[in-house]
Amino acid sequence: MWRLSIVLLAGSVAASPIPVPSESNGDLEPRAIQCSIPNVLSLSYTARKLAITAKQATFLYADGIGGGPHSPGGVGGITLIAADSAISDSELALQVANEASDVAAATLSIPKYNGLKTLDDYARLYDGGLWKNSLAPTGLYPGMITNYTQDLLFSMERLSFDPYAVRRLFPDKDQLPFAVDDVIVQDVTGAESLQKLFESGFLFYADHRDQGSLEHTEHFAAACDAYFFISESSKNFLPLAIRTNVGSNLIYTPHDEDNDWLLAKMMFNVNDFFFGQFHHLAATHYVFETGYLGGKRTLSEDHPVLVIMDRLRYGALGIRPLAVVVLFREGGSIDQFFGYKGSSAAEFAAKLYSNGYAGDVQNNYFLTNLRRRGLIDSPIGLPLKHFPFYEDALVNYNAIHDFMTDFVNSYYTSDSAIAGDPELQSWLLEANGPAGSINFPTKETMKTRAQLVDLLTHMAHLVSSSHHAVNTNQLITGAGSLPFNPSALYQPIPTEKGGITNLAPFLPPPSQCVQMILNQANFARPLIAGTSRTMVHMFDDPVTLGRLNKKTKDANERFMAAMRAQSAVIKARTFDENGLSQGMPFVWQALDPDVMPFSLTI
Ligand SMILES: *[C@@H]1O[C@H](CO)[C@@H](O)[C@H](O)[C@H]1NC(C)=O
Ligand SMILES: [Fe+2]
């Protein structure tokens, strides 16, 4: 049903190029007036206040579409959703049209793959330019097919395209979640025991046990938790053990037979992929939307901060309605391709929002979040030798931070101007109150311009690096790629080890493979690469910049230069003499600012 409607959509706009942001930025009534922060002493202040009150009467809160925190309501809110849906739906339709020849070619090729009887047959699903439109411009990440059996590839996935689950265990506040035989620990890690590894700060953990209580589809998934460690000798970040938490609750390690251990890693991947996708919905979409809604209701349309937030919102409000139709509904793509049902996925995302794990604002600032999980600046153990998500996102983050610093300082000439801006102050109250943001700054935690810079930088980080590291092009190019990263298993979780001669039956059968890859392709936006929809152009919009001051325009020039320079770095990335890139046996290019979109239209 949804495919039909998308095909119809595709038919209507297939010929048009990616919409130019400045022509369709979803503003209700684009304004030419120069932005300013409110001046309570000026004659026009009363009129400005009245305009905000009038806006509030039409811009309301409604139940979250598809669950989770509020969506916009009222005539004003619904108009914005419609404007954003027009953007996100048309980008999807363009991608569906772009995929059509890939789907036809892939369907025709299935018989060539020996009926998909072995894992190697699955690896050939991307052979010879198949999916070339959907996979452009990077293709499947080099190494994903050739190197997927390596433990280092498995563990480094956690530090690149699925970086929000793993954490270091801290002996002063954590306990060991499960035991592993010391003989195995010694052999795999070189450390004396699991306890020693833990005490010295070399042990890491990812916990997906909470998926065990979700409602299953007709496919299969475990609810794995897993240990990782830093090797004292190689300094590599590697897997130590995976526990299934279902059936006979087996604990797998690299000491098991090859097929058992490979299957364990695939079982973990199923859970981590599910987590990554529904965590992203809460941590990026929900958090940005609620922060935005609070601002939209309290900041004047002439406030520079709202103008920036409106730019960052480009198309974003169209996603939740689309997710209901495509993903969450009974029989939608989650029911079809995941181990847990769409309805549970929606609840899972809502819970990750409301319990703060994904929903907290300040606690999830880029560096704060990584520090809390012991992934950077750890007081114990060794630092991670390579952390690709951090390395790449940091460059984008710093460029955003520089831009926001110049922007904020150009409008607020002192820290006291923050407390002196009644609109900004009412945003803080609104966000922490009716808007439903969690852990949003308050007047106590936003006293300085630097703190406003941090908040705005975070919002821009959420709609860019944070999102596109796990979603968008990531599904088809890596995080959902077969054979190693399936979204569900097609055989029951084993209750004993040994005797598995072939893992192919655990993967989707030929009839479902093309549909599964196609579903991932629907999230990709290769047509955006190199256009004015990329991260390079995050602020580069004539309508937006036209209303902002010269210092902000100059800051945008510097931002664009920094992003272009980083794009060149990422585009040049290849394997080094050890067959590694950023310490990984695959080449990861997700956060290329000239490829990734600047907003949340997926
Ligand atoms: C990973 O795969 C590529 C080929 O795709 C190869 O050149 C490289 O050496 C491999 N890396 C390792 C560590 O095996
Ligand atoms: Fe998304």
Automatic annotation (TrEMBL):
Keywords from the UniProt entry: Dioxygenase, Metal-binding, Oxidoreductase, Signal
One Gene Ontology term of the molecular function aspect: metal ion binding
InterPro entries noted in UniProt: LipOase, LipOase_C, LipOase_C_sf
Signal peptide annotation: 1-15
Top-level taxon in the UniProt lineage: Eukaryota
Pfam families noted in UniProt: Lipoxygenase
Single GO biological process annotation from the record: linoleic acid metabolic process
Record flagged with keyword Signal: yes
Transmembrane residue ranges: none
Residues covered by the Lipoxygenase domain: 202-602
This protein's name: Manganese lipoxygenase
Organism: Orbilia brochopaga
Species classification: Eukaryota, Fungi, Dikarya, Ascomycota, Pezizomycotina
